[in-house]
Design goal:
Elements lengths: L25 H17 L3 E3 L9 E6 L2 E12 L4 E8 L2 E11 L1 E7 L5 E7 L1 H13 L10 H13 L23
Antiparallel strand pairs: 1-2, 2-3, 3-6, 4-5, 6-7
Function: Removes the formyl group from the N-terminal Met of newly synthesized proteins. Requires at least a dipeptide for an efficient rate of reaction. N-terminal L-methionine is a prerequisite for activity but the enzyme has broad specificity at other positions.
Pfam families: Pep_deformylase
Keywords: Hydrolase, Iron, Metal-binding, Protein biosynthesis
Length: 182
């Protein structure tokens, strides 16, 4: 097992868009294993490569009875239905806020061997796919919160024991906000 340290809110790698994977090789397989082992060790539903300090478009997931990984993922909403529910992040430990997401999505990408993969997700799996893909775009779920909730979230983060006191960056999401204000 190769558990890696998770980068915390304020680390610039979390705000940097990740690069496409072009080599489906042993290093990619090692990254997927490290992501999996770290996600499992931390009890997360998903983990994206930038959270380990690696700027590649890869994430792992294990929620709602579905588990795996996606390389170079994209997703689309199946319909206009939304969900509003509690969301957290291993890079913002111990803190949770309600966040609006698409309820039903289809994600497409590749596995670590370069074979095409398609995942249909609803509820928690849909939330996970969107959350982890956001990480690959340098977006945190805080960016999707309404202004009042985001202000309260930032106050909680600044008071958190793990926060180093740096100036956090809030970023405009490149994806539809599904009713959430930025």
């Amino acid at each position: 097992m190769t558990v890696q340290p998770i980068r915390l809110f304020g680390d610039p790698v979390l705000r940097t868009p990740a690069s496409e994977v072009v080599d489906f090789d042993k290093e990619l397989a090692t990254l997927v294993k490290d992501l999996w082992d770290t996600m499992e060790d931390e009890g997360g539903a998903g983990l994206a490569a930038p959270q380990l300090g690696v700027g590649l478009r890869v994430f792992t997931y294990n929620c709602d009875g579905f588990a795996g990984h996606l390389v170079n993922p994209t997703w689309t909403a199946v319909d206009d239905e939304q969900q509003d529910g509690e969301e957290g992040c291993l890079s913002i430990p111990g803190l949770y806020w309600d966040c609006v997401r698409a309820k039903n999505v289809v994600a497409r990408g590749w596995n670590m061997h370069g074979e095409p993969v398609q995942i249909e997700g609803t509820d928690m799996l849909a939330r996970c796919i969107q959350h982890e893909t956001d990480h690959l775009d340098g977006v945190l779920f805080l960016d999707r919160l309404d202004a009042a909730t985001r202000k309260a979230a930032m106050k909680e983060i600044r008071a958190a024991e793990w926060f180093d006191g740096g100036v956090p960056t809030i970023k405009q999401s490149p994806h539809p906000l599904f009713g959430g204000a930025v």
